[in-house]
Amino acid sequence: METLVNGFEFSRDASGNFRAAIDGKTTLTIQTFNDFVYVDLREYFHSRVIREILPTKRGVTLKKDEWIQLCSKSAEVQAAIMRLSDLLDAGKKPTDDQIEVRITDDVVVFVRKITTGTPGARVTVEKTTRKYGAQADTADSAPTVKITRITLTPIAWLKVFQLQKKEIESIVTLLDNEASLAREKRKQDRIAKEARCIRSILDLSSA
User: pTM for this structure?
Assistant: First the structure.
């Protein structure tokens, strides 16, 4: 039996970021910060107190290059989802309850068997961030490690990495081009400011 999968629609806010609700609780945001592009997958909740939809800690923020590498391995993840789902649908026990797909040194995807709630396969994108303190150059310094993750249903994964993959790629490219122009403008502004300072010093010295 085939399942009809509907896509989602992006909207652009006043800050220039693109946002779309993947399902009832998960949102995909493509945004820029300090003139660099990031893709954020995050769960949101509706606050009854202030009557607004707010982000939770359950989510991952990926750099543009990390997102591109994740997309490049989406077919491998989809194959793992199908393999695990087919076994579960047939009532067979999978050899492994978890399939790991390594994306980068810091980003990994796990396809897991879920037995609680609605049984089936789930996809977890996990990112490890290491932050070094002021003494990062010493031999005994250890980084502060932070692990963030987001868990998606197979349908949500299908929407993002197959159904609307091209649209997301276009938005990432658009924001990346805008960010590049902004970085170049900031560079030219800095050069112009330095030139004005030099001229001012020369004028004072020749007066």
Answer: 0.84
